[in-house]
Amino acid sequence: MKVALFIPCYIDQFYPQVAIACLELLERLGIDVSYPLGQTCCGQPMANSGFEHLADGCNTLFVKNFIGFDYIVAPSGSCVLHIKEHLKNDSQLDLVKHIKATTYELTSFLVDILKVEHLTSSFPYRVGMHQSCHGQRGLKLSQMSELNAPEFSKPGKLLSLVKDIELVELDRKDECCGFGGTFCVAEEAVSVKMGKDRINDHTKQDVEYITGVDMSCLMHLEGILNRQNSSISVKHIAEILNGVKA
């Protein structure tokens, strides 16, 4: 199995430890991982802003970088959803179709493809799980609370395999944090209020860490936590599954 690691640009620039944790975790699970050095932004910011037609260069570069792999794995639900829904290249339709079908968010890859049932990591802290909107509603990583349907959570299943972790139950477990990509720029006040509401829910449960599958959401929450001088920290789920030392 040849797997390419797709690292979003904001993780590359601000949270490289998340990329390293993702690589180490996959290698620990016996995967042959490659990191295409020419990769840059996937084009999601342009698409989110209504300028998808300006992302042709990103599309072409993405296809060029990720040719020839069995799977493409990324520690970001929103970037994966963008590739699955918006990647296009009219001259390479079959190749684009293959890339879309084989691009996975990390936890989905671990649960659906590798079918991970055991982990050796330990994280002895109270942890709140933030369900990001793109991952939950776009990639179906977990069940939506408004549906009368059996509950499931791929990130939650993996976290339950971590030794000594104490996962808390939130009052509103799948509420949006307010980040929303360019939404947090265009509607700053609304975005911050939504973020504060999410943090209040975690604070009420006396968590020590907030985790999730999207570092973009966690970055938004981290900024608010820092301004509140909160003792709560954020950790991407890849770091916890990889056995990061707090």
Automatic annotation (TrEMBL):
GO terms for molecular function: oxidoreductase activity. Pfam families: CCG (PF02754). Residues 3-84, 127-221 form the Cysteine-rich domain. It comes from the Bacteria. One of its GO terms (cellular component) is cytosol. This is L-lactate dehydrogenase complex protein LldE. It comes from Pedobacter insulae.
